[in-house]
């Protein structure tokens, strides 16, 4: 028997005793003294989950003990636990069925949504609403006032006078004879006279806005190019001045290098002469000391 099985057996006994005690002492009513603020139906659901967990522990421990057969009275003990769990579960299930709130379905939203409006073709409606000029041409004489014969005769008398011979005599003037035939609108004029669709107006406005933005960007680009050219001119002057200074420094450093080389050669010669003089003096001192000691 493993250590886990031993722990499960101990936990199973404790869990069953605790559940039996809680279910026996529980009143299963809301607002009862000594009970928690949690609603009763939530407590019943939690108790049912605990009973399911106890059943799983019982099955696990029972399978382990059956395979090992280490406890002789285990089957009877497990049968008692199973009967206790069945009794407690039936009691809690009955209480849960009695106090659980009814399930309320929410009101459907689909019937409250209005149907979409029908799609109307703008071009077709515009063509249908426009009158057909070719089918019903306008009569220009219909809009003119009728000619009055007395007024025409009086005007003729005022022009020629009573004594002047009349070259000819003409009847009443027909206004339709003196007018040009009506010019019917051509297909191009009809197409231009029709209302421009909304998407074409939007496209034209968008093109104008883009053209204005492109012109503004081109102007700004030109300004940036001019500013960059001016900055390059200033930098060019600074670079040329720096180049001149570097060239002068190079010439000075070349001259100083030659002087340093000459000075180094002279200083090394002087150093060797000094060392040789010291050696001569040292040898003379030693010889003088030896001569004095010997003689």
Automatic annotation (TrEMBL):
Pfam families xref list: Use1
Ranges annotated as spanning the membrane: 272-292
GO-annotated molecular function: SNAP receptor activity
Example of a GO cellular component annotation carried by this entry: endoplasmic reticulum membrane
Bias type Low complexity, positions: 175-188
Family: Belongs to the USE1 family.
Record protein name field: Synaptobrevin
